[in-house]
């Protein structure tokens, strides 16, 4: 029996467009709000998200300069800057054959490179979780298609657990035990967020 091939480019586009919808509702007053993403304010989270968009877009073109991953300043209009970054990565990932390319991902370490489909899956799970982060920060609820969450669950479960999650600079905090039946809550708990944040 053959497993269905998952089109991470399509799934990633859903996650990124969802983030655009959420961020487009952000006001200047929201930017200093806390987020579930460790010590980041919403502005800090958006700067991280925008930086990642440009980094992954560059990687999709084979660019390996580590300075691409340096945290970006969002300028006088952070929402506009974020939307532009998201549209940039959507365009980059929509290019023919992107899933078959090799992505150099300097933030994973010198010389780190991954098959395109796998690299896009990393970006996909990030924007499922970061969309949830943004929604929580501004008091909204985010939803995804069941098939999207099924794919996101499979990607999340590849992320190692244990001491590696406690190391400085790790992308995800230690997993949080969670027994609820909401698949998005289970994903974010596995990746170190409290589904009941900020409680």
UniProtKB/TrEMBL annotation:
Any one GO MF annotation of this record: metal ion binding
Pfam family, one: MDMPI_N
InterPro entries xref list: CHP03086, DinB/YfiT-like, Maleyloyr_isom, MDMPI_metal-binding
Domain Mycothiol-dependent maleylpyruvate isomerase metal-binding: 15-135
Superkingdom per UniProt: Bacteria
NCBIfam families, alphabetized: maleylpyruvate isomerase family mycothiol-dependent enzyme, TIGR03086 family metal-binding protein
Annotated protein name in UniProt: Uncharacterized protein (TIGR03086 family)
Species assigned in the record: Kribbella pratensis
Organism phylogeny: Bacteria, Bacillati, Actinomycetota, Actinomycetes, Propionibacteriales
């Amino acid at each position: 029996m053959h497993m269905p091939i998952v089109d991470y480019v399509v799934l990633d586009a859903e996650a990124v467009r969802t983030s655009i919808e959420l961020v487009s509702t952000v006001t200047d007053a929201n930017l200093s709000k806390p987020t579930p993403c460790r010590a980041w304010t919403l502005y800090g989270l958006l700067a991280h998200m925008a930086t990642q968009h440009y980094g992954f877009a560059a990687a999709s073109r084979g660019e390996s300069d580590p300075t691409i991953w340096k945290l970006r300043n969002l300028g006088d209009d952070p929402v506009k800057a974020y939307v532009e970054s998201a549209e940039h990565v959507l365009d980059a990932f929509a290019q023919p054959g992107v899933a078959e390319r090799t992505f150099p991902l300097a933030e994973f370490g010198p010389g780190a490179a991954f098959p395109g489909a796998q690299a896009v899956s990393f970006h996909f799970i990030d924007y499922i979780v970061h969309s949830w982060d943004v929604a929580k920060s501004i008091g909204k609820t985010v939803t995804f298609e069941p098939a999207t969450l099924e794919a996101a669950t499979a990607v999340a479960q590849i992320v190692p657990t244990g001491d590696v999650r406690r190391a400085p600079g790790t992308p995800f905090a230690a997993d949080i035990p969670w027994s609820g039946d909401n698949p998005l809550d289970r994903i974010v708990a596995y990746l170190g967020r409290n589904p009941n944040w900020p409680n």
